Every structure is written in structure tokens, then in C-alpha cells.
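Hi again,

Forgot to attach this to my earlier email, sorry! This is the prediction with magnesium ion bound. I've pasted everything inline since the attachment limit keeps bouncing my files.
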Amino acid sequence: MVKPKTAEEIELLRINGDLVSRTLAEVGKAVAPGVTTLELDRLAETFIRDHGAVPSFKGFDGFPNALCMSVNDVVVHGFPSDYVLKEGDIVSVDCGTFYKGYNGDSAYTFPVGEVSPETRKLLDVTKASLYKGMEQALDGHRSGDIGHAVQSYAESFGFSVVRELEGHGIGRKMHEDPGIPNYGKQGRGSRLQDGMTICIEPMICAGGRGVYVARNDWEIHTSDHKNAAHYELTVVVRKGKAEQLSTFSYIENDPSINI
Ligand code: MG
Ligand code: MG
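C-alpha cells for the complex follow:
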């Protein structure tokens, strides 16, 4: 049985949610052709530590860096590297923080310069599918309501949904119950309750939904090597309307960030 969070816990999750949101915006300001993903990772780690928090991904199951940086056909869990971003790439940036015993977790896919119309559509649809899922994060609903909303929206554009990875509860641990799949049936799955804190994170593929794990045992690639996008927000399940603990507004209200 998953317990709803107390108001005090939610406030600490909100501080973390705000910090990951601001960190993603700092990264977004620096995303450009010619920049390496490792440079972006360093910038994020410095920003997180300057705010008195810890990058929670670093050391998580041995993950080496502060950010997951997943370029083009890498769906999630990409390692920052000396790869130089180039015009037309997309980079999915996943960020986690740990502050005062609680976690933050959010992700955003940035275009690098100008991207193809098909890729533009993939980004727009993946982000919109997250908001469709969020509309279902309501007291009394089920995790399958979220998954169904994400899946039916994304698939209506001919895109496909990764099944092997899913969203999750969040609190003292980065990954808590319940799992929040991005596919499913309405009325099925875990019951959602007011005060539960969850991360909704659709991973949507331009081509087929098949994926494989790279030789480093971390990076998830699309099998057909077509692009994939990933957006993630942390929310509180409420009656009437879910409450966001993280936000893309720092990114989207900053005209210097290419989105
Ligand atoms: Mg994440
Ligand atoms: Mg997550």
C-alpha cells in the first residue's frame, strides 16, 4: 500500500522539483551545436551543488554522472561524453536532485539548432502526451488511466511507446511505488490517491517501440535507430487537478533557450 505524502514531505519534494526545473533551464541555455554533453553535465552538477543539493543520479547503481544525456536514438540513460552536439540533433536531458532527504526528477528533450519537421512533431507530441497523462493523475483514478492517455495520444500520431521503462512514485527514494507505465488500459493498475507523488515520463519513439540495452548496460537505444524523446514531470495526485512539483516554465519562458 503506497502512503500519500504529508504536507511537509511535499514541500521538500517541491524544493527539489524547483531545483531540477531550474537546472534543466541552465542546461537548455547552453545546448547548441559544438557543445559536448559532458560540458552540459558539468554545468548541471555545479549548479545543483551551488544550491546545496546533490545530483542524485551520480553513483546511483554506479551511474557515472549528474545527468542522463540521451542523444537522438538513445531513449534514456545516456552517458554524458565528449560527443559534440550538432545541428539537427535532439538531446534528452534527465536530471535528479537530492536535498534534505528527498528527491527531484525531471527531463526535457531539447532540439539542437533546427530539427527536421518529423523530429519537431516527435518533441511536441511527446510533451503533449505527458500533459495528457497528467490530466489523469487524480484521486481515485488508476495508473492505467495515465498510461492509456499517454499511449492513445502518442499512437494517434503514428509514434510508438516504449514499454520497458516507466514512471514511478518519488519521495525519500528516487524510485518508489507505484510504477506509472506509459501504456495501458483505463481503470486498471494501481489506485491513485490524493497526496501521492509521482513522476510521469513518456518515452516516445518516432519509429517502432523496440529497444535494446547498449554494451555499457545502461543506454537504451531504439532498435531501428530512429529518434526518441523523453519528457518528465513530478506531480502530486489531487482531486480535480494534479499539482506540479516540477515545471518546464523556466525553460519555456526564457527566450534564449532553443526549444
Ligand atoms: Mg528522470
Ligand atoms: Mg524518473
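Helices lie at 7-30, 37-50, 117-134, 143-155, 249-252. The chain has a mean pLDDT of 98.

That should be everything now.

G.
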